[in-house]
Amino acid sequence: MKTSSSKHSKKRNVGLLYEFLVRLISKSLVEGDQQKSTDALQTLKRFFKPESELYKEFRLLHALMKTEVSNTTVAASIIAEAKNASRQHDSEKLDREKSFLIKHINHKLNEDGTFWDQPIAEYRMLATVQTLINDWRLGDGVAMQRVAQYEDQLTKWLTEARVKPQVHEELTGTPGENRLVFKLMMKKLNEKYSLALSNDQRSILKEYVFMVTTDRDVTNLRNKLQELRTSALKSLNGYMASTSLNTYMQEKLTETRDAIEAETLQEIDDSTITKFMLYMKLISELDSKE
């Protein structure tokens, strides 16, 4: 049974669903909410797995959002291909998958009621593209005037120059969903937290997100953390040796030094990253006082 697309719903917009989940992952990771970041990441992996209709629709929408072409002729060709691709989706299965995902989010990830109210810079275009995909899939009987208007907007979008976000250089060639997760996560992290995080903190987050979303070997991240561990101990020992401290501060800094020294880095998870984020914040504050 084909569903109506007369009114756009942000809860059923595959692009917004994906953006909301990615933002929640990055926000929770930065804030040290290990359980929430893990739950959100697992939700994304579960519902956007390659064989799902959600993932198929997301790939189509994402391609239309990110592609840039030089002229309207090429844009028209892309739109024609996208229209054909949209009609290959199983609309009933897709509708069920979205319903299950929305229900899961409401029960597991929306405790504070803010999940659906996150501001998205490209909201209007995401709504336009999702509505077009819905209309293309329906075929006969859709609002032709709206389709024509939205296809014209999409043509302009495809042919206009846009600033591309910078991403990790080692990402080149990484295929599939994980690359998209990483790009979006790092874009949101850089946009929201670039002023609040130190270079070391951003470096840790970048390596960790890249490892988690691409199942990359942990060696690079472990080496980076070991370097930061050595640097942190050097700064901490130097501060303690050169500064007159009261008993309380001496005890607390000694506890911190012992904790850093005890980090084996055999297993690296959200807890490890959170602790290193805090270590880096402390060292940054100590360095600023020297």
Structure description:
- The radius of gyration is 23 Å and the shape is elongated.
- It has two domains: 10-159, no CATH class; 197-289, no CATH class.
- The chain is an all-alpha fold and 290 residues long.
- Helix 1 packs across helix 8 (176-193), helix 3 (53-66) packs across helix 6 and helix 9 (199-214) packs antiparallel against helix 12.
- Residues 1-5 and 164-177 have low confidence and may be disordered.
- 70% of the residues lie in helices and 0% in strands.
Proportion of residues in β-strands: under 5%
User: What shape does the CA trace take?
Assistant: elongated
What is the SS-derived class? mainly alpha
Largest sheet: none
Unreliable sequence segments: 1-5, 164-177
Explain briefly what this protein structure is.
The protein is mainly α.
Could you name the key traits of this structure?
mainly alpha; 290 residues; 0% strand; disordered N terminus
Task: Give the topology.
Layout: H1 14-31, H2 34-47, H3 53-66, H4 72-86, H5 91-108, H6 123-138, H7 144-159, H8 176-193, H9 199-214, H10 219-242, H11 247-261, H12 270-289
Helix pairs in contact: 1-2, 1-8, 3-6, 4-6, 4-7, 6-7, 8-9, 9-10, 9-12, 10-11, 10-12
